[in-house]
Amino acid sequence: MSALAILLAAACAPGDGREMRGASPTDTAGVLTDDGARSTAGAAGHVSLAPVEGAPKVHASEMDGQVTDLANYDLSYPQISGTSFDSAVNGALEAVVAAAYTGFRASVLEEEGSEMGASSLRGTGKVLHVDGRLLSVVFDVTTEWDDAASLQQDVATLLVDLSTGRVLEPAELFVAGSPWLDQVAALARADLSAQLGEDMLFTEGLVADAANFRHLAVTASGLVLRFDAYQVAPGVAGTPWVDLPWSAVASLVDRTGPAGHLVS
After folding, report:
1. Comparing C-alpha atoms, which of 233, 235, 258, 56 is closest to residue 174?
2. Angstrom distance (rounded) from CA 242 to CA 263
3. Rounded to whole angstroms, how far apart are CA atoms 78 and 80?
4. Nearest-5° angle of CA 217, CA 218, CA 219?
5. Max avg pLDDT among 20-29, 42-51, 60-69
6. CA-angle at 241, arms to 133 and 195, nearest 5°
7. Which of 76, 114, 133, 264 is deepest in the core (most CB within 10 A)?
8. What is the residue extent of each domain of the chain?
9. 155-192 pLDDT, tens per residue?
10. pLDDT at position 124
11. What is the average pLDDT across 206-223?
12. Which CATH code of 3.90.1150.200, 3.90.640.20, 3.30.390.10, 3.40.50.11030 fits the domain covering 170-262?
């Protein structure tokens, strides 16, 4: 959290138009938290989930404002309450949003003084799954540059073990040493081939390498794989995704791990 606060303090000069929700905002990471009690259910950009016994409460927060007179941003993201690790989890969620904002602001300021038109940054963090053990969030961010012929789309995912407050790597869902990457890569390629056509695929983006499958999320019914723009297909495909039922990878999931309770 302290590193994030320093990053934002350096990046956000007074009077840049940045508007925060929360009590007594200051130019640190903490002001990103919305102290209001807005529920995730029905909030724009979030998935409405049925309450799960033992799950933390999820609230929607927002970060919006302007960078110079010609650029604006609006980023919404979830925050939780009711666990022993709220601060750590919320800091991890905020960090994803802060990274998107900081990159956008730096690019805008590089062009300051040029004949630049309006640019905008929009993003949402969607809770795909939350229970007493695991939180899974997908972030979709769209940047529209004034001089660009198309939109820039970015995606990120976050898995958090709520029993420890620790951010998880996808590999930690699976049995150590298991060929989970090979299985997931093969299933993803088959699914994307059916969606887009084999001749549309960029196969190097589907090689069984952890870097290619870092955007992994979970739902109660299975895995969600997200891919960067241009990673597995031409830009017209946006940021593709694949849904895999737990049954497709059940033998590889660590039953004592953070997602083991989701596999029947």
Report:
1. 258
2. 18
3. 7
4. 140
5. 60-69
6. 140
7. 76
8. 2-167, 170-262
9. 999 999 999 999 999 999 999 999 999 999 999 999 99
10. 97
11. 97
12. 3.90.640.20
Is 215's pLDDT higher than 50?
yes
Rounded Cα distance between 27 and 62, Å, is 15
The answer to whether the CB of 16 falls within 8 A of the CB of 65 is yes
CATH architecture for residues 2-167: 2-Layer Sandwich (3.30)
C-alpha span between 238 and 229 (Å, rounded): 5
C-alpha span between 27 and 30 (Å, rounded): 8
Beta bridge partners, 160, equal 135, 167
Strands 71-81 and 119-130 come out as parallel
CB 190 within 8 A of CB 184: no
Q: Which residues contact 159 (CB under 8 A, 6 or more apart)?
A: 134, 135, 136, 167, 168, 169, 170, 173, 216, 217, 218, 258
Tokens at residue 255, please?
Answer: 């039953």
> What whole-number distance in Å separates Cα of residue 68 and Cα of residue 71?
6
How far apart CA 166 and CA 59 sit, in angstroms, is: 20
Distance of alpha carbon 41 from alpha carbon 107, whole angstroms? 34
